Amino acid sequence: MNKIAVITGGASGIGLAVGNMLRETGFTVVVIDKACNSSEAGLVYRADVTDESKMKEVFADIAKKHKQVDVLVNSAGYALLGAVELVDADAVRKQFDVNLVGSANAYKFCLPLMPCGGKVIFLSSAAGLNPLPFRGFYCSSKAAVHMLALSARLECKSFGVQVVSICPGDAKTNFNANRVRELKTNERYGNAIQKCSDHLDKKNDERMPVENVSGKIIKIINKTKNKPLYIIGRKEKFFHFVCRFLPESVKLWILYKMYYK
To answer: Which CATH number covers residue 93?
Structure first.
């Protein structure tokens, strides 16, 4: 039987790459993204994941067209850069609305359509496992996504839907170009915020090819039984492993030295 996958944020980046690979393996892929140029009944929905009523409407239509959903990939999201002290409250709310509330909206309207054996992928981030200077709200929102995924996994266990948190490192996509940057500063930070922004712009050659990330996500989707957490990226995996044996103060010192300037 043809399997149905729904991908939020599926018009670009990791979501787009995952969708393309799923189609190659025989899935019917349904994309939900506010950046879609147009809607196509049953396959492409132009919608903002933070709009609860619109998401309810979208999944009602998906139910009519496809009856069930076998895989949900929650990949809609973006990053906010700026000092915790100086970022405007509206920008903070939007960061959490898109990354956390948007993921929750897709999950809650999709779950009733999923059979036993269905799979929900929450795309968190390696930044959701480690604090980073001037990316505190992004890290916090992705940490919240990770915790939401693990909580949902416990809730779904009894009826056979697997929920997985995936934490990738940086991939070569338009994600960094779309980063929202609050570069205002004061005497406490000097030019450190701008330096952080500049550093992120220069890192593109070091980022993983998006096909590597999406390929690993496809393997995770195709597994019969999944672990609760997968980290994608050699450096990210190694650092996560090492930090299990380090005092928190040492971990924070390393991150300060690596990322503050």
So the answer is: 3.40.50.720
String of DSSP letters for 67-119: S--SEEEE-----EES-TTTS-HHHHHHHHIIIIIHHHHHHHHHGGGPPTT-E
* Three-state SS at 44: strand
Q: Which residues pair with 102 in a beta bridge?
A: none
* Residue 40: predicted pLDDT: 74
pLDDT digits (tens, 9 = 90+) for 185-220: 999 999 999 999 999 998 888 899 999 999 999 999
**Sheet order of strands, 71-74 included:** 44-45, 28-32, 4-8, 71-74, 119-123, 162-168, 229-232
Check whether 1 has a pLDDT greater than 70. no
Does the model's pTM come out above 0.85? Answer: yes
Please count the structural domains in the chain: 1
229 has which bridge partners? Answer: 165
